[in-house]
Structure formats: C-alpha cells, structure tokens
Write a structure and sequence with these properties.
5 helices; alpha/beta; 131 residues; 19% strand; globular; five-stranded parallel sheet
C-alpha cells in the first residue's frame, strides 16, 4: 500500500487517531479539519481511501436534499476520485441513517464508534467488510 493516499476528515474530537496504523501500513495520510479544505484539495489530489465521520442532518443545514455532513463531499468525490474507497465512522445512535447515504453513494465500510485500530486495519487490508 506504499502508494496509497488516505484523506482523513476530522470534524469532531471523537474521531480516533489512526495515524500510527496508517504509517505502519505504508499509507500516506492527509488530515483535514474542515470540509471546505478537503473539497479544495480534492481538486488537486485524489485519494485512494477516505475515512470520515458521519453526522446525520436532523433539522439543520444538512436537512432537505442532503442526508448528512458528507453528501456534498461524496458528490465531488464521484467526479474527482470515483474509485476511492469511503470508510465511514458513525455513532451507534445514527447507524440507521447511514443506509440512506449508502443507497446514493456506495460506501466501502461503515464502522460504529468506538472504532478500534484492529477493526479499521481489517477493512484497510481487505480482510474485513465493516458493514
């Protein structure tokens, strides 16, 4: 996996730090703390893998045409990096809503928080499905 680029979208303090795992697997991680920054970088560099947290849009900015915080990014990802594997981290209370997103954007894996490094490693190495 030495040429693998991973975009890690860290939108909350609950996002686990998997930096050591990525280094051990030879994955080049690029961290983003805002959706605007990752969207800008996506036009310049395309990831092989994306790891991001899912936040359902109950009645906020995401409501209406969008399901979650990831919709707009995933539309752009389809354009710039359609082969990228998307791994979503989600709180147990919001797990049911990820299926709505998965109907529109096929997700590689969905992992319920708290996520252990061993779980993510199985998904990254192709030894686990994470769904």
């Amino acid at each position: 996996m030495s040429d693998t680029t991973l975009f890690s979208i860290l939108e909350s303090p609950t996002h686990p730090d998997f930096s050591a795992l990525y280094r051990r697997l030879g994955i080049c991680q690029i961290e983003f703390r805002s959706m605007r920054r990752v969207m800008s970088e996506l036009k310049r560099q395309q990831p092989d893998i994306v790891v991001a947290e899912f936040f359902y849009g109950y009645a906020n900015n995401y409501a209406g045409i969008n399901i979650s915080n990831l919709d707009v990014f995933l539309f752009s990802l389809q354009k710039y990096a359609p082969e990228a594997r998307v791994i979503v981290l989600v709180e147990k209370s919001e797990r049911e809503y990820v299926d709505k997103l998965n109907e529109i954007f096929p997700l590689h894996a969905v992992l319920v928080q708290p996520v252990e490094g061993s779980q993510l490693e199985l998904v990254l190495t192709g030894r686990g499905s994470g769904k």
